[in-house]
Design brief:
homodimer; alpha/beta; Aspartate Aminotransferase, domain 2; seven-stranded mixed sheet; 14 strands; 16% strand
Chain lengths: 378, 378
């Protein structure tokens, strides 16, 4: 009997109501019926973003929205700061360089959060900096950055703050307006419990001033076209209709649980996961800055990390993520966001214990489960 | 009782097997299970494109693939020819201009096909032209261009031919390799019977030489990244997993019917639709170059075109398309491609007759249906 469980930090599992929404016959996008949905989900996204800013829906993966941010805010030769503490931080640098941006990179040791003061120092040194690109939750390392502190720093300057919240949105508390996050980008396949294929971007007044003058070439991701289309409750190009209808179903679930309850659930699952890992004698990859969306764990000495992840998936149907890029084989990552609950975490720990045991790793069987249960009972 | 019928030229209706595929639990994209699907659908796309060239899947609407073509082939200051015979031809010009391309525009009267000799003349005048951008089926006017003749002309020059086959692919015969179509772009929500959200792009050897040297900024749509990822049967960014799995279901249906049978079915439906319109005393918008994917019909004098389309949709559940841009209210368009069969055409004509009659248009009731039936019985 095959039964599969998904505990990867994107895609995350889909609620049955989302699956059902996707099976519906398609409707045309330029109809009052679809416009009503587009309006409703845009309002719903504003609730999740905690913003009154415009939020646009793009048909792309989250990286498309990252590129939209760079292309719409900057012109070739402009200066920007990027924070690199993992694969997705590096992506900001790569995109900026593709667009001929003069990029000042803050390198952060993988597994650590950026020191907000580093950003402040660099901004003071160079008042020409137009944008600061940060990753709220660095999915590749399981690290959360202090977006509130960074928001305060950037707010006091002429630069705009651009936040990759692809795995942070609806996973961790992220207060777009209160924390002065000028541009926030996200994707559908993480906290929003949808298949990949939609991206989102919010734009503050301060950021709009750059959008109006930026000279980078852009068309499909041109936010001026998105803003103009939105005046008629429309998108400039045919959107991923089905996924937007599924987004309505997902937002209904999110509103019903309530954002703060969702964050508490994620936090508790994160704590349980971390305690379980420690109880098994494993080491966290980011002990000081662990995100409540995903936990990265070091593969213990003598264990083949890639084989561990493959066996859990191919033999037992439990899919977690391995390490990416330079962390390949060195860490594994367990997601605890979106449509994942405490019993998913329990079964995942059980599967991990089983495979670690079979691979010869020494520990007391059941200790991880016990530690997790203790957290969940609190 | 509400029962809805979709006869718009994108999105087109979804087969039940496609809807069912979309309702499945999601799987992770970096798994052997998904890689097998990605490989299979890429092979299936090559069958539909009639090509041995690489075909890449992008997560975007078709316009994303159009921008990918411009950004990957050209550098700022390069010269290109665009053919404008409708809204989508104009899009090629708009994208080229966004990228700083020196654009030579061939203006074609809306409703007419481009004269291939016009392209030949312009290419002879300016040997610096690097690319020619043409729309195979101009969805906004229902016109098909002679891609075979244009292919022969461009093949003999240094320029590459780039074809918008968004509504043409799997709708009309399009022979990428035989006709020397260097770059062909398409989308999911037309002949391929999927929801919008995926785009496709094929690249010839001749075109690859431009991709390697093009200096336009690009990242999300960078075909060098797509090509590199494909070496490991992967995509550079998280793809629209669910739609790709649904693509497998759609390709299975296409392979079962067979491309040539699909084209014959579309052709017969197109003929029936055209004969029906003439029998009702209506005028075709593109009588000399009517596409077999979509028929555009002039709204008769004294009839409110927008109200006609709205009444069919909102009162009777039959959705056809109105005119776009300068043709708003002046034409309506009936799609006959993808998961649409002769009885869909029959019910659409019936609904059109009903509403035209109610709106006071004078004609003999049933004449349109009769003309269509005569074609279908041949």
């Amino acid at each position: 009997m095959e039964k599969n469980y998904l505990l990867t930090p994107g895609p995350t599992p889909l609620p049955p109501a989302v699956c059902a929404a996707q099976a519906q016959p398609i409707i045309h996008h330029r109809t009052p019926q679809f416009q009503a949905i587009l309006k409703e989900v845009t309002e719903g996204l504003k609730y999740v973003f905690k913003t009154k800013n415009d939020v646009f829906i793009l048909t792309s993966s989250g990286t498309g929205a990252m590129e939209a941010a760079v292309a719409n805010l900057l012109s070739p030769g402009d200066t920007a700061i990027t924070v690199e503490g993992g694969k997705f931080g590096e992506r900001w640098t790569e995109i900026c360089k593709s667009y001929g941006i003069n990029t000042k990179v803050i390198k952060v040791e993988w597994g650590k959060a950026v020191e907000p003061k580093e950003i402040e120092k660099l901004l003071q040194q160079d008042p020409a900096v137009k944008a600061v690109f940060v990753t709220a939750c660095e999915t590749s390392t399981g690290v959360s950055n202090d977006m509130k502190a960074i928001g305060e720093i950037v707010k006091a300057t002429n630069a705009v703050l651009v936040v990759d919240a692809i795995s942070a949105l609806a996973s961790l508390d992220l207060q777009t307006d209160n924390w002065s996050l000028d541009v926030v980008v996200s994707g559908s396949q993480k906290g929003l419990m949808l298949p990949p294929g939609l991206a989102f971007i919010s734009v503050s007044e301060k950021a709009y001033k750059l959008v109006e003058v930026a000279e980078s070439p852009r068309y499909y991701f041109d936010l001026r076209l998105a803003k103009k289309a939105w005046e008629k409750i429309d998108t400039p190009f045919t959107p991923a209709i089905t996924t937007i209808i599924a987004l309505k179903a997902a937002l209904d679930i999110i509103k019903q649980e309530g954002l703060e309850n969702i964050f508490s659930r994620h936090k508790k699952m994160a704590q349980a996961t971390r305690k379980a890992m420690l109880a098994l004698g494993l080491e966290l990859f980011a002990p000081e800055a662990s995100s409540d969306a995903v936990t990265a764990v070091k593969v213990p000495e003598g264990i083949d990390g890639e084989k561990l992840v493959k066996t859990m998936r191919d033999t037992y149907g439990v899919t977690i993520a391995g390490g990416q890029a330079e962390l390949k084989g060195k860490i594994f990552r367990i997601a605890h966001m979106g449509y994942i609950n405490e019993f998913d975490i329990i079964l995942c720990i059980s599967c991990l214990e089983k495979v670690l045991h079979q691979m010869g790793y020494k520990f007391e069987l059941g200790k991880g489960l016990q530690a997790a249960e203790e957290v969940f009972l609190k």
